[in-house]
Amino acid sequence: MKKTFLLGLALVATSASAQSLTGAGASFPFPLYSKMFAEYKNATGTSVNYQSVGSGSGQKQILERTVDFAGSDNPMSDEMLKTAPAKLLHIPTAIGAVVPAYNLPGVTAPLKFTGKVLADIYLGKIKTWNDKAIAALNPGVTIPPLPITVARRSDGSGTTFVFSDYLSKVSSEWKSKVGTGNSLDWPVGTGAKGNDGVAGVVKSTPGALGYVELVYAKQNKLPYGSVQNRAGKFVLADNGPASKAAEGVVIPADTRVSITNSPNADAYPIASFTYVIFYQDQKYGNRTEAQAQELKKLLSWMTTSGQQYNEPLDYSKLPSNAANKAKSIINSMTYGGKKL
Q1: Going by DSSP bridges, is the β-strand pair 69-72/88-102 parallel, antiparallel, or unpaired?
Q2: 297 in helix, strand or coil?
Q3: I want to staple 76 with a disulfide (CB 3.0 to 4.6 A). Which of 80, 126, 237, 312 is the partner?
């Protein structure tokens, strides 16, 4: 009897450990998700395979129902949601900061940037590091007269969306000529795939400037500048200033909201939620109710216990209002119309 009972436990454990989920999308949260999913497997036996392919590709794959969930730094638009075969939901999992990282030999102190200067660099109007607009923001700093090699994303990117969303709010010229989006008609720049690709261009190219999620700058030991916020304060990205961007923001019921250029006086201005996107009703294709339950468990864990991994990896935890909205959304999941 005892042997039979133990065998039963072993079979249950084997069944649980064999469960797996797949996701694809944003590179912005990839370092965080890699840690989260490794810890989740250790705790539950469930494997989560997440492919860092860019937010645009992740959105495409969830629309095609080839993954359990997508990762995206920008919420899907109303127009895109209308093309989905069924209702899609968004939940935020973290707040991250997009920073201007650069490679300037001999410059050790963090440079200061305004939104206008960043926009003018990416518009191709500011071409050298010793341009008077940059020099005026950084008195006393000897900046070499190197040409600026502009690094940007070549793939559909939520990081690009966040960066361009910010630039559109602070530069009317950027808004009218380039605008906001995952993929842009760039005036200038060397394209690379993923945050790691842009960081690689910056790291290997003296004179380069690129926008990357904070953790990629830190992992590659790239200096990054402070950015003037809406209150006129120059703020260096970190967990605190990034989380301040969400303070006072009304989080809508579906959690789709921009927090760039926050009015908070202490906020870092190029910050964003990063999202997981999934179907409300999980009965489609060959999906089983067990798979649906596993996804619900994962999402619940990511927005509660899993939040402990955010700050050590330079992401901010979800504020309570966002976490509560995420909980309500997760609890609305169904399988064949029946509540999970």
Answers
A1: unpaired
A2: helix
A3: 80
How far is the C-alpha of 154 from the C-alpha of 186, rounded, in Å? 9
Q: How far apart are CA 232 and CA 197, in angstroms?
A: 32
- What is this structure's pTM? 0.90
Does 17 have pLDDT greater than 80?
A: no
Q: Which helix (H) or strand (E) holds 93?
A: strand 88-102
As annotated, the residues of the chain forming the CATH 3.40.190.10 domain(s) are 2-96+273-339, 97-271
Pair 201, 152: CB distance under 8 Å: no
> Are the C-beta atoms of residues 104 and 223 closer than 8 Å to each other?
yes
Per-residue exposure over 115-126, b if at least 16 CB sit within 10 Å of its own CB, e if not: bbbbbbbbbeeb
Q: In whole angstroms, what is the distance from residue 171 CA to residue 7 CA?
A: 66
State residue 18's pLDDT score: 52
Instruction: Compute how many other C-beta atoms are within 10 angstroms of the C-beta atom of residue 331.
Output: 11
Which top CATH class is 2-96+273-339? alpha beta
The predicted pLDDT at position 241 comes to 87
Amino acid at 189: G
Give the Cα separation of 204 and 9 in Å (integer).
Answer: 53
Number of residues written out for the chain = 340
DSSP 16: H
pLDDT tens profile 291-306: 999 999 999 999 999 9
The structure tokens listed for 71 are: 């990762």
One-letter amino acid identity for 135? A
d(CA 269, CA 226): 10
Which class does domain 97-271 fall in? alpha beta
**Rounded Cα gap, residues 272 and 43, in angstroms:** 29
Query: Would you state the pLDDT for residue 96?
Result: 96
- 245: helix, strand or coil: coil
